[in-house]
Design a protein that fits this description.
The longest helix is centred in the middle third of the chain and has 14 residues, at 104-117. A hairpin with a 4-residue loop joins strand 12 (243-248) and strand 13 (253-258). The protein has ten helices and 14 strands. It is of the alpha/beta class and 290 residues long.
Length: 290
């Protein structure tokens, strides 16, 4: 099972939204991490055949994204998940199953199976308009899986969910990644930190870091410092280093920052996290001239 993305590019007039991305994805959960506007949605829409690339190609087991056989292997949850508010969850899944070509009997079987999987069996006969944001997103996952896809693409799947729903959602995605290629995009660091076997960091339409959590964090390991300093020293550090965190204390300013070497006498090295790396790359306006 192999999804090959070869020099994929999308250009709008003078703007390059996706810039020659090449990746090979196999079974597992891939977290596409980047800020809004980085190109996450554009990339996913091309992988789903919704958007035609300017150049490059996407193939799954040798089958091009434009072919019907590719779409038969695909499940997609867009960022803006459309639904019919007056439908019940069960009826909505039956309707979506018919659009995907499932027989009536198979549709009923899959609807019940998936409602159980996403913990919505007890509200199967309730109208979608009564659902919370988290319940709607879980229903979105269910509809994306009706055709038992080998590729599952989820665009900002946890947007707007409360912490409890987010944990439930992450656990579900983690289970699904055992026998599928799951690609989820997000700007929420914890969503990929806990469940993604491979993290893809995207910036300005390019993949800037790729690998396991340990691998991609290694670029700043030993370079993350914490210190509590007076206001004058704090101002100097803020002006010269990428600042991860600032907290005002009684007579000091606590800083967490990235530096090539110890930035001040009181600074101590601490373990780097994915959030440190994310803010290092994506925090606008930081000075990286350590």
């Amino acid at each position: 099972m192999e999804l090959i993305i070869d020099r994929l590019t999308k250009q709008y007039k003078n703007k390059i939204a996706i810039d020659r991305i090449s990746l090979t994805l196999e079974k597992g959960v891939y977290g596409l991490l980047g800020p809004n506007g980085a190109g996450k949605t554009t990339l996913m829409q091309m992988l789903c055949g919704v958007l035609k690339p300017t150049s490059g190609e996407v193939k799954f087991n040798g089958i091009d994204v434009s072919e019907e056989e590719y779409r038969d292997s695909l499940g997609y949850l867009p960022q803006d998940f459309g639904y019919y508010p007056e439908f019940t969850a069960y009826d909505f899944l039956l309707y979506m199953a018919s659009l995907k070509g499932l027989t009536k009997e198979r549709a009923k079987e899959k609807a019940n199976e998936l409602l159980e999987l996403v913990a919505l069996s007890d509200v199967a006969k309730k109208k979608i308009k009564t659902f919370s944001g988290g319940m709607k997103r879980r229903l979105g996952i269910a509809q994306a899986m009706l055709n038992n896809p080998k590729i599952l693409i989820l665009d900002e799947p946890t947007a707007g969910l409360d912490p409890k729903e987010r944990v439930r959602f992450r656990n579900l995605i983690s289970r699904l990644g055992k026998d599928k290629i799951v690609l989820l995009s997000t700007h929420i660091v914890s969503d990929v930190e806990y469940i993604a076997s491979t993290i893809l960091m995207i910036k300005d339409g390019q993949i800037i870091r790729e690998g396991s959590l340990e691998k991609i964090i290694s670029v700043i390991e030993g370079k993350v410092f914490e210190c509590s300093v007076d206001s004058k020293t704090a101002a100097n550090l803020i002006a010269n280093y990428p600042i991860i965190n600032i907290r005002e204390e009684s007579d000091k300013t606590f800083l967490r920052l990235v530096a090539e070497k110890n930035p001040c006498e009181t600074a101590v090295v601490v373990s780097a996290t994915l959030e440190d790396l994310y803010l290092y790359y994506f925090n606008e306006g930081v000075n990286k001239n350590e």
